[in-house]
Specification:
The protein is mostly helical and 126 residues long. 78% of the residues lie in helices and 0% in strands. It contains five helices and no strands. It starts with a helix and ends in a 6-residue tail after the last helix.
């Protein structure tokens, strides 16, 4: 199970870098990118989590714990990045920062829900 926090850290790092450099464009109200950024994570995160569970051979009963271990490192690290958001995410204006926070909570909820969902359902092979 030690792999999951490491994967969670890598996922957090990728998302942090994405929003550091392109967050202003991704979280701009009234653009198609904001709809895409919120909409694409709905199938993207569950698919990523299922692929991770299959790759690691995670038993269905262990998937909620694995999902928690993926989510927690990013949640803890985001305590720091959100505290210093003007420095970490300079492209996201204060007026739009709440949308970024909502996006984060949406993504973390999807990670955790995927762990619960895939613990109750045995998915067919891809």
């Amino acid at each position: 199970m030690r792999f999951y926090p490491f994967f969670g850290f890598l996922l957090w790092l990728a998302a942090t870098l994405l929003f550091r450099y392109w967050g202003g464009e991704l979280i701009q109200p009234g653009t198609i990118l904001i709809w895409l950024s919120f909409g694409l994570i709905v199938p993207g995160i569950p698919w990523l989590m299922l692929a991770l569970f299959r790759f690691r051979g995670t038993a269905p009963q262990d998937r909620p714990k694995a999902a928690l271990l993926v989510a927690v490192p990013g949640m803890l690290l985001d305590l720091l990045t959100l505290s210093f958001h003007r420095s970490v995410f300079p492209g996201i204006s204060d007026a739009n920062f709440h949308l970024f926070f909502v996006w984060l909570m949406w993504a973390y909820a999807l990670i955790l829900l995927a762990g619960l969902y895939y613990s109750r359902r045995t998915a067919k092979p891809v």
